[in-house]
Design brief:
43% helix; alpha+beta; six-stranded antiparallel beta sheet; 49 helices; single chain
Length: 1495
């Protein structure tokens, strides 16, 4: 019984009654264990038996009730059951059968088994529904058993007791950062013997392990998790398990390498013995492979199995040919000669090996040695209609005895089954499928099942083979099989070399036809033969390359979607004609045509058919069709609609506001004249009233209604309706969602002013008042004018902040020229198509000045390409056949033909746009604080406004003189009460007008938008506000070494010739060595070939045959056909000799010690004869193994190079040592300046590398870093970053991401560095598009500038509100500060605009230029001496700092180095020094590493 859980989204529920009815309906269905429906979350979580129900049937059941149900997650999650043991009462009224029935009737109980003595019951249940204590209470008198009872043969009614012998262990796991971590833990534990199931949850930070305690202990499982670099703790201590002798025997027999198996294996190799060594000093799988390949090359060794986890090497050897001591030395001598090998005390005991090897999970040993352990059969299945069929077939077959794994493919109509031939047969499996109602048959000529390769064989091979290989006999038959396609999610890729690495290695595997990897999408599309290999094995192959890989179940993600406009349809039959024709077309998965809208929605498989083919099919039916045009402009970013809307609002308000302001000014002038006359002429109130009524505007049209008030009312109404329309809509929406924003304040202020005035007017008319009341009809128009002006200016400014993103979007080409090529790349035809119609694999022509429409690979032509808008690199990049191009970049001078590799949303440009869009919409933590503040701000201001109103009313009635004194425009014709109320209203409305949460809300997002936009223009992609804000708090910058501080590609630093020039001329040796290494895939070999080609000025070299490579040692081969190369070189030599001889004649006083060979390049050969050279290139051990003696002086020269962090390689031609080549990964030129600048910014800089401490120290001294962590495993980099964070430091990690992804995710700010398209999207917070370390400085500098700008904005906004609100409330009335409402709204608009303009100042940001920084650092850049560098090896904190050298020691060391160098220079007569430093530079600036600059 397999229990699963699925979440279903449910729309249409209105109350708890709906919830109850859904729970009741689903609860009554068979196989349902639990239903939880949430009205708030609008979903239903159902736990069900997957044999009886499927997610689709549950969804349909909810739909049948009248609700809209959709599957939130198409893949249901398995639910791990738990078991409890009950001790049944001796005297019970219930029979065992009744107890079982009673327990099974309860929800959550899956299975009950009662022992034959009827004393114990094992209950399997779902822990989320019920628990052991509750189950015990269901059976009267039953007790919970603390341990598993003793088992006797035949005790249990069911034979599957071994299932109950498993224990469940729950562990809390800390340190996981992404799904790659969960895959690592699951992969590591899944290989352990005794572990049956494992599920790791990233969200819960929990691992649930089902295991067999006799085979493995809980403590061992915990240690394995900790060995992977995570912290683990038991959530609940596992219960001890007791088993009978029979069960233990059965478990022992299931062990993969039992004693008999070992002895059988040993006896097979006549007279061989097994020895197990303990090996210290292994760090990764590279060490394991080195030891396995080197030791297995020895003739006396039959097999080698090396375990990294157990630090052991088990070797099967012939004791008559080699001794144990020699074997031990052979392991110790394996490169890099750092391993410490010892023998365990009981090495004679062969039984030791199985215990050491036990963590490697294998299949049970078969009874017949000739019988393979498992077999694979492919069965054709017809009649499947949906995923439900797939799940039911997989569910039934996986329950059958002997079936190891089942993979059913709906598109291919096949099932691939891995089974144990001793327990079941292909015919039995076929009949089981037919019993379920499907037609099943074996493929023609492929009835024979495929034998699986045994794991032991895999361990011995250098390269692990995929588990399901087909014997050669069947290979021919299988070729005709249909090809399947699967998608694999790949994590940990950082650059184009990762993509090339995966594609190159997987293409070599049997059964894989093609592979295409998309870097930005992190996805691989693989076409494979299901009879040879299955998707899980493909994912495992990718994982072995060091990347995270999971098979994507939903293959539909690769489907293409096409939206078309179809013209010419007249009726339903046209629709049917198009739909039926398209559905018959191969590759079309779904088609829907709507007659009313003339639109067609089509889903298709891009592998089988393209969008242009679909359009052609519709055209052939007689209809015209075109693409639905997408909005490619960045119109949603330029705020045009909002700008237009607020401009209109401003103009409407202004038109009506000007007359209102005119009326107001006129009244103010008249009022001041009246009060002046009143003061001087002592007019009575009756005279005043008479004068008042004689004024034109105060003339009463109706009693109580003056011309002034009537005109003000007429002008105010349109503004209130049209000018305030948007404010009212926004405010109503806000209030509906129980929030209060700026619009609520504006609406409150204007509505209160308008309604108050309107009511006062009505009261005056009702009372037929002689004196006209004072109204506020002038307030709303003036408020709306200033606020809409502010909003208009604000949106204009906001449009400017998104310019960078709009520019990125506008880079996308709209059309592409697709060409058809004939034989020899002859151009047959050209066609202009929409960019959406470009298919993968199309040949696209790009003319000079044109944009690249898609990502692709150049197949013909040479040109320069401007990629500045994408990478920020100003210099054009040369493109020739084989180079990749990025969509959006501009072709400059030559026409190019490119093959499209990524189209549509998969292009690099689309991914960058998506990244920047996400960044600009994400919130910084400081902004979340501002949003929270704004939420409380509006209610607070309303409260202040109300308090102001009542305070002034009370003050006015208590002491009228205060109001009389400070109220502008007071005249005695108005009653005191009206004056007080008018003044109080004016103050409270001004408070509402002046308060501005907008400026607070705009402070952060505008600065973040401008900051991320400016960053994108400089090639720095910042993923949102949080990393932008966090970067300024960073105190420690941790650099990875390879590919970050260094170039990541080795280069030849020096070539020293060890033979006389007349025996082997310089260019001849270079030609031989270059040709030999041209067949090698090793990076050192590639570096040597590249150097030789450059020196010989030739792209082609000679011929290499009999090429052999021994990993960790070197290569051997034969080289021919270099004569043509030498002859071409000799022409140049002849010309040089003429010049050089002239020079020798001129300089008669030349030093005698100068050899002619150094000046005269070589003698010219008279005849060209083809000669074969035997070549050996490798380390000391390789030369010694091939019988060549390495002299002391050569050995010393090699040691000197190794001390300086270089790799020294020896070359021998025809059995004579002739050259020493020093190779090193060179430091980037800007690294030293970047480190110095970061230190001068007050940051601590640390170097972290997996490389050895010598190399790390050498690199650190060159760039000026004083703290180094060397030999750190990739999994321990996370722990190292965590260690720094635990010290209270904020850490920025800079890496190229190949193995830095977890550390990048763990760091406070992860900075991924790449070149061009090589963007490490996954783990990093900041992505530097250019491969320039100065951008690390720029990103931290930009963060500091942005945060500074945000703080300035906050100060603007807060100071404005803190000062403005009290002034408006009348607090500063005694010093004469009084504000009218319109003044408040003007000030409010000004504050918002000032904040946005302040943010726009960031657009002036300029990256710190290298030239200025170099000038500032001049004279202060110097290499560090070894004594200044503290190196910490591995995870240990106490690093071995270099010993302090006294001045005498330095001089002695200097002298020794100088003498050695002079001696070695004399010996290598024909030596070419690429980068020999001035010896005297060792004294200056301490005993530093030599600077490798080519002369």
């Amino acid at each position: 019984m397999e229990v699963k859980s699925v979440a279903i989204s449910v729309e249409g529920m209105t109350c708890s009654s709906c919830v109850h009815s859904i729970e009741q309906r689903l609860g009554n269905m068979s196989g349902i264990h639990s239903v939880q429906v949430s009205l708030e979350d609008k979903n239903a979580v159902v736990i069900y038996d997957s044999k009886l129900q499927t997610p689709v049937t549950l969804q349909e059941a909810i739909c049948d009730m009248g609700f809209d149900a959709t599957l939130a997650d198409s893949t249901p999650q398995p639910v791990l059951p738990d078991r409890v043991f009950l001790t049944l009462p001796a005297q019970s009224a219930l029979t065992p059968r009744q107890i079982c029935a009673m327990l099974l009737s309860n929800k959550g109980i899956l299975d009950v088994k009662v022992s034959s003595d009827q004393r114990t019951a094992v209950v399997t249940f779902i822990p989320s529904i019920t628990n052991g204590r509750h189950i015990a209470q269901m059976v009267p008198g039953a007790d919970l058993s603390t341990s598993v009872p003793e088992v006797t043969p035949g005790m249990w009614e069911d034979s599957s007791w071994s299932q109950a012998s498993s224990a469940v262990l729950r562990l809390k796991v800390d340190g996981m950062t992404c799904h790659s971590c969960t895959s690592t833990i699951e992969g590591k534990l899944g290989k352990l013997q005794g572990v049956q199931r494992i599920r790791v949850s990233l969200d819960n930070k929990e691992a649930v392990v089902v295991y067999q305690p006799p085979l493995i202990t809980a403590e061992e499982i915990k240690q394995q998790i900790e060995a992977a670099g995570f912290t683990a703790a038991f959530k609940k201590q596992p219960k001890p398990l007791k088993l009978s002798g029979i069960d233990l025997e059965r478990l022992r027999n299931a062990q993969p390498k039992s004693s008999e198996a070992s002895q059988r294996e040993n006896s097979s190799g006549a007279g061989t013995k097994m020895v197990v060594f303990r090996v210290e000093g292994m760090h990764c799988n590279s060490c394991v492979l080195n030891i396995q390949s080197s030791v297995s090359a020895l003739p006396a060794v039959a097999s080698v199995v090396v375990s990294l986890e157990n630090k052991s090497a088990a070797i099967n050897y012939n004791p008559s040919l080699i001794s144990i001591e020699k074997l031990r030395k052979a392991v110790e001598n394996v490169s890099p000669e750092r391993f410490r090998v010892s023998l365990p005390e009981e090495h004679e005991n062969l039984a030791l090996f199985p215990t050491l090897a036990s963590p490697l999970k294998s299949h049970p040993a078969s009874k017949d040695p000739s019988q393979p352990l498992t077999q694979v059969v492919v069965i054709n299945i017809e009649g499947m209609t949906c995923n439900s069929c797939v799940q039911s077939i997989e569910g039934v077959l996986s329950q059958k005895a002997g079936v190891k794994s089942v993979h059913v493919s709906l598109p291919n109509g096949t099932g691939t089954i891995e089974y144990d031939p001793l327990q079941t047969s292909p015919e039995d499996l076929r009949s089981s499928i037919e019993d379920m109602g499907f037609d099943a048959s074996f493929p023609a000529k492929a009835e024979l099942p495929v034998a699986k390769a045994q794991p032991e064989a895999q361990l011995d091979s250098h390269k692990p083979e995929p588990p399901s290989k087909v014997p050669p006999a069947h290979l021919g038959r299988q070729e005709s099989k249909t090809i399947s396609k699967c998608y694999v999610q790949v994590t940990g890729m950082t650059c184009a070399s990762c993509v090339a690495n995966i594609e190159r290695n997987l293409r070599r595997e049997d059964g894989i036809h093609s592979i295409l990897v998309a870097l930005m999408a992190g996805k691989a599309e693989v076409r494979y033969n299901p009879a040879v290999i299955h998707p899980a094995a493909i994912a495992e192959l990718i994982r072995e390359l060091g990347f995270g890989a999971t098979v994507m179940e939903n293959c539909g993600e690769g489907d293409g979607i096409l939206e078309l406009v179809v013209r010419g349809m007249t009726c339903a039959s046209c629709v049917h004609k198009i739909e039926s024709t398209l559905m018959k077309t191969n590759g079309v998965l779904y088609c829907s045509v709507a007659l009313a809208t003339n639109k067609a929605h089509i889903k298709y498989d891009p592998e089988a058919i393209g969008p242009r083919d679909v359009i052609q099919v519709i055209k052939d039916l007689g209809f015209t069709t075109s693409l639905v045009k997408k909005d490619r402009s960045a119109s949603h970013l330029d705020h045009k609609q909002e700008i237009r809307q607020w401009k209109r609002s401003f103009v409407v308000s202004l038109v009506f506001c000007i007359p209102v302001m005119g009326l107001m000014i006129y009244m103010m002038v008249m009022d001041s004249q009246l009060s002046h006359a009143h003061a001087h002429h002592n007019m009575s109130s009756e005279e005043m009233e008479a004068l008042h009524s004689s004024m034109v505007l105060e003339y009463q049209l109706l009693p109580g209604l003056s011309v002034m008030n009537f005109l003000s009312f007429l002008l105010c109404v349109p503004v209130q309706v049209f000018g305030g329309w948007h404010f009212y809509i926004q405010a109503s929406r806000a209030l509906r969602h129980n929030t209060a924003n700026m619009d609520v304040l504006v609406v409150l202020a204007t509505s209160i002013a308008f309604l108050y005035s309107f009511i006062i007017l009505l009261v005056a008319m009702a009372e037929r008042a002689k004196v006209n009341p004072v109204t506020f009809f002038d307030t709303p128009p003036m408020l709306f004018v200033f606020i809409s002006l502010g909003r208009w200016l604000e949106h204009v400014a906001k449009g400017k902040t998104s310019e960078a993103l709009a520019r990125l979007i506008s880079l996308q080409a709209t059309e592409a020229t697709i060409v058809t090529l004939g034989p020899d790349n002859v151009l047959l035809s050209e066609e202009q198509v929409d960019v959406e119609l470009v298919q993968r694999g199309d040949i696209v022509k790009v003319v000079p000045g044109g944009k690249f429409p898609v990502d692709g690979r150049v197949i013909e032509g040479h040109s320069m390409v401007d990629e500045s808008l994408i990478t920020g690199e100003a210099m054009p990049v040369t493109k020739k056949p084989g180079n990749t191009v990025i969509a959006g970049s501009i072709n400059q001078n030559g026409s190019l033909l490119i093959s499209a590799t990524h189209v549509g949303a998969d292009t690099t440009l689309s991914q960058i746009v998506k990244l920047v869009e996400e960044a600009q919409t994400s919130k910084a933590p400081i902004q979340q604080f501002a949003d929270k503040l704004s939420g409380y701000f509006v209610p607070f201001i309303v409260a202040v406004s109300v308090v102001t109103l009542f305070a002034w009313i009370i003050i006015g009635f208590v002491d009228f003189e205060i109001v009389e004194k400070y109220f502008l425009g007071y005249n005695k014709s108005i009653s005191a009460a009206e004056v007080i109320i008018r003044f109080a209203f004016q103050a409270s409305i001004t408070v509402l007008c002046i308060a501005c949460p907008c400026s607070l809300g705009l402070a952060t997002p505008t600065a973040v938008m401008v900051g991320t936009g400016v960053g994108a223009q400089h090639g720095i992609l910042i993923k949102g506000g949080e990393p932008l804000e966090m970067a300024h708090k960073v105190k420690v910058v941790v650099f990875d070494k390879t590919g970050t501080i260094t170039h990541g590609t080795p280069e030849v630093m020096q070539v020293k010739f060890l033979v006389e020039g007349n025996l082997l001329p310089r260019h001849k040796m270079l030609a031989i060595v270059g040709t030999a290494e041209s067949s090698s895939e090793h990076p050192l070999g590639a570096a040597i070939t590249k150097y030789c080609k450059k020196e010989l000025n030739s792209e082609t070299l000679g011929t290499c045959t009999d090429f052999q490579v021994v990993p960790g040692c070197g290569i051997s081969c034969r080289v021919t056909n270099i004569e043509a190369l030498l002859y071409r070189k000799n022409r140049m030599v002849e010309e040089n000799n003429v010049k050089n001889v002239t020079l020798v004649k001129i300089d008669e006083n030349a030093d005698e010690s100068v050899q002619p060979a150094l000046i005269i390049d070589a003698e010219l050969p008279t005849t060209v004869t083809s000669q074969k050279y035997s070549v050996l290139i490798g380390n000391r051990e390789w030369m010694t193994r091939n019988g060549l003696v390495v002299k002391n002086e050569v050995d010393k020269a090699m040691m000197e190079h190794e001390r300086r962090g270089r790799t020294a390689v020896l070359a021998a031609v025809d059995g004579v040592l002739c050259g020493l080549i020093a190779i090193a990964d060179t430091v980037k030129p800007e690294a030293e300046l970047a480190v110095y600048t970061l230190k001068s910014m007050g940051l601590e800089v640390v170097l972290m590398t997996g490389d050895n401490s010598k190399t790390a120290r050498s690199i650190a001294s060159q760039v000026g870093i004083t703290k180094v962590f060397a030999e750190v495993l990739p999994s321990h980099k996370v722990a190292k970053v965590k260690q720094l964070q635990d010290e209270g430091k904020r850490v920025a990690m800079v890496g190229d991401g190949i193995n830095d992804s977890p550390a990048l995710a763990m760091a406070n700010v992860g900075i991924a560095i790449g070149t061009g398209t090589d963007v490490a999207i996954e783990a990093a917070d900041v992505v530097l598009i250019r491969d320039d370390l100065m951008d690390v400085v720029a990103s931290i500098d930009l963060s500091r500038k942005t945060v500074k700008r945000i703080r300035i904005n906050f100060v603007f906004a807060l100071i404005y509100n803190l000062i403005g609100v009290p002034i408006a409330a009348g607090v500063f009335l005694p010093i004469g500060l009084v504000l009218q409402p319109w003044m408040g709204s003007a000030a409010m608009a000004a504050s918002s605009v000032s904040v946005v303009l302040s943010s726009l100042l960031l657009k002036m940001y300029q990256k710190p230029s290298s030239e200025k920084l170099e000038l500032r650092a001049r004279g202060q850049l110097r290499h560090k001496s070894p004594s200044e560098i503290s190196v910490h090896v591995g995870l240990g904190e106490s690093g071995a700092g270099s010993p302090k050298l006294s001045l005498v020691d330095r001089i002695i060391t200097y002298s020794r180095a100088s003498i050695n160098s002079l001696l070695s220079d004399k010996r290598s007569v024909n030596s070419v020094v690429l980068s020999e430093p001035d010896k005297h530079s060792l004294l200056v600036g301490g005993f530093g590493e030599d600077d490798d600059t080519a002369l």
